[in-house]
Amino acid sequence: MTLDLVAYGAFFLTMALTYAIICLGLNVQWGMTGLFNVGIAAFVAVGAYTSAILTTPETPDRFGGFDLPIAIGWLGAAVVSGALSWGVGALTIRLRADYLAIATFGVAVTVQLCMLNLQPLTGGAFGIGFIPRPFAQLQADALLFSLANCGLLMLVIAGLYLGLQHVAKSPWGRVLRAIREDETAAQALGKRPIRFRLQAFTLGGAIMGLAGAAQAHFIGFIAPDNYMPILTFQVWAMLIVGGSGNNRGAIAGAILVWGLWALTAAAVSAFVPPEDQAQAAALQIVAIGVGLCLMLLLRPRGLFGEVSPLARLRNTLPLSAKE
Amino acid sequence: MNPQFLMDGLIAGAIIGLGAIGVTLTYSILRFSNFAHGELLSWGAYLALGISGALGFLAAGLKQPIGPFSFGWSLPIAAVLAIILTGLLALAVDAALFSSFRRRGSAIIIMVMASFGASLALRSLLEFFFTSKPAYFTQALQIAMKLGGGLRATPDQLAMLVVALVSVIAVHLVMTRTDIGRAMRAVSENPSLAGIAGIDVRRVIRTVWFLGAALACIAGMMSGLIIQIRPYLGHDLLLPLFAAAILGGIGSVPGAMIAGLIIGLCEAFTVQIIGAEWRSAVSFAILIAVLLVRPRGLFGKAS
User: Fold this and answer.
1) Kind of pairing, strands B145-148 and B151-153?
2) Residue B300: inside a domain, yes or no?
3) Which residues 95-134 on chain B approach chain A with CB closer than 8 angstroms?
């Protein structure tokens, strides 16, 4: 019984950690740079499909199935998602702030269509199965298998976390924050906001692609249904709850929100009669939407959010200098 | 090629255009892209459905089809009430959410994000109340009339085109000929200057919400009458709405309508040439093309 519980705990944590990776990617885009991405699901999906196509065994009725090692699949996922982000960013970042949001929304719709309709590439509505799972040789022992997967993702997260913390402190990260806080001042110092924003958007997209690949290989099966707009909402809720601008907050928010989501979903399926479950699930989503708005209204910097350096400065200044 | 796609495109385009006017007005006056605007279309359609159902229940005579149309008097009466209620809904969302961001002077992008959360909540509420099963205003079947030139349209479709045309002309007249319209244009040029000049900016903002929501409600009811009513009705139209608002040029009412018609026609054309499954990609392609070639749109002012 306890072993089952541990195995379930490891499974749950692994899923939460894949969301944490997406959240870290979003944090680079939103938290560090202030770029609003409404198409997270698309970038995650592109990563997942890229890795699946690269690593699955050959399939007669579908392009791809190159049977490459998983690591190459993950790398490819990051590269392709990063390239897509670069393209979208290059097109819209120089325009008004909301155009990027609208364009990423369009990307989400279009990627969803491509997943459904480009059957020879994506397998259509049925998706792609038989995606090789890391530590497949351990699959006979459920506990060991979940723990190994969980450990692998923890390593990935730790690596990303250290890397991103380093990036945030590096000159590049400082420029990003400077641009986010005061674009004109940064420009006056000779930094080109567009270029730095584009780099950050690409990096964030690549991390989301990696997360998609990790998730796909953990579940072993992907279909267009996994990448509905609700995924984008969940990740946003995670980052806002955890606190944008803070990598630890991003990870904590992912685990917390995913935990709440999984718990309420379990409660819905346990206590609500089957005929009302669709309605209960809808209420669950209403709660996320309202929660997101409340968080923005009441505690915009989230649980562990970064205090804006300018605001910190303002608070330490004498009263007369505040205005 | 069957010219019928022109008719389908015009009708889809009228729906998109009406919705896009609301998007373009909120964008130019409140200065953020409202991701919850699609939900106003869905709410409008469901409110009309609920009211017309209740009216039909109270007085069965109201359900009798009027002349050649598939709906009875219950629908036009419900439409008027639904337009008012959708307007009030938009005002309520603004009061609960966006006004406090405005007061605080939050970044635009925070408002965009809040609108995103609001759209999620509003849409799922509809799913909660009405389930995701499609609903219809009437079950009556209509025979399409021949219009000549190989075109056919049902009386409902023609009526909707007329309604759309009248609404657009009305909004255009309000914007160009009335005091409140002038005030709206002034606020969109420069809110603080307009405020100094004695324009009640909050009244302008309320008018924008109400007008946008009223048009959204009309568009939602049109879509519901001609196709079907679903909780995702507005969400699925959101990308065409944004594409039309940007193609027409932010702030331009005639631009939004013309761009809506262009997008509707392009969608119908794509359905003929490539296939219905790629319909939703058309707006994205148009959006990308506009952003590449002419980011200020057809009738927009250079920023």
Assistant:
1) antiparallel
2) no
3) 97, 100-101, 106-110, 112-114, 116-122, 124-125, 127-128, 131-132
Residue A256: Cβ-neighbour burial (10 angstroms; 0-12, 13-18, 19+): middle
Question: How far is B243 from A307, CA to CA, in rounded Å?
Answer: 36
CB contact under 8 A, B291 and A290: no
Answer yes or no: is B65 within a domain.
Answer: yes
Q: How many domains does chain A have?
A: 1
**The tokens 């130019």 sit on which residue?**
B28
Q: Find the CB nearest A92 among B110, B128, B291.
A: B291
Place of tokens 């309000």: B174
pLDDT tens, residue by residue, A59-102 = 777 777 788 899 999 999 999 999 999 999 998 888 877 889 89
Residues 6+ apart with CB under 8 A from A103: A88, A91, A92, B287, B288, B291
User: Can you tell me the ipTM of this complex?
Assistant: 0.89
Nearest to A297 among B33, B100, B292 (CB): B100
The number of beta carbons lying within 10 Å of the beta carbon of residue A242 is: 28
CB contact under 8 A, A117 and B277: yes
Tell me which chain A residue has its CA closest to the CA of residue B274.
Answer: A117
Range of the domain at A145: 2-227
Contact B278 A117 (CB under 8 A): yes
Sequence-separated (6 or more) residues with CB below 8 Å from residue B86: B40, B43, B44, B47, B213, B214, B216, B217, B220
The answer to the question of residue B32 being in a domain is: yes
The DSSP result for A96-128, as a single string, is -HHHHHHHHHHHHHHHHHHHHH-HHHH-GGG-B
Q: What is the CATH number of the domain that holds B72?
A: 1.10.3470
Instruction: Show the domain range for B280.
Output: 4-293
Digit-coded pLDDT (tens) for A246-267 = 899 899 999 999 998 888 888 8
B302 in any annotated domain: no
Which B residues in the span 227-246 are in contact with A, Cβ-Cβ below 8 Å?
235, 238-239, 242-243, 246
Measuring CA to CA, which residue among A230, A246, A249, A229 is closest to residue A238?
Answer: A249
Nearest CA in chain B to A105: B239
What's the number of domains chain B is made of? 1
Tell whether A239 is covered by a domain.
Answer: no
